[in-house]
Amino acid sequence: MRPFTLNYALPTGQSAAVPPYHFDVALQLNVLPDGRPAVSDRALLMATGTTTSTAGSQTHFDD
After folding, report:
1. For residue range 13-62, what is the model confidence (pLDDT) as tens digits?
2. Residue among 16, 19, 57 at smallest CA distance from 41
3. Closest Cα partner for 19 from 37, 32, 35?
4. Whole-model pTM?
5. What b-and-e string marks burial along 14-36, b requiring 16 or more CB atoms within 10 Å of the CB?
6. Is residue 1 scored above 70 in pLDDT?
7. How many Å apart are CA 38 and CA 46, to the nearest integer?
8. Is 44 helix (H, G, I), strand (E, B) or coil?
């Protein structure tokens, strides 16, 4: 039996979009093809948007 919530919690397929950056394990951040941190590209930030999470702020005093 499949739990009801898994019908909505799991992605339905792979996205065809390819981001113009990759995660650099050594630096622990997203990097552009030219080596700059992805956060330095203002146009990229505006195009991709942001996400926020409130999970930690509900459980930790230092968030």
Report:
1. 777 777 888 999 998 999 999 999 988 988 888 887 665 556 655 555 55
2. 19
3. 32
4. 0.50
5. eeeeeeebeeeeeeeebbeeeee
6. no
7. 12
8. helix
pLDDT value at residue 51: 59
> Of 10, 39, 11, 46, which Cα lies nearest the Cα of 31?
39
Query: What is the Cα–Cα distance from 25 to 4, expressed in whole angstroms?
Result: 36
39 Cβ contact list (under 8 Å, min separation 6)? 29, 30, 45
Phi/psi at 60 (5° precision): -125, 135
Yes or no: say if 45 and 39 are a contact pair by the CB < 8 Å rule. yes
What does the alpha-carbon distance between residue 22 and residue 35 come to, in Å, rounded to a whole number? 10
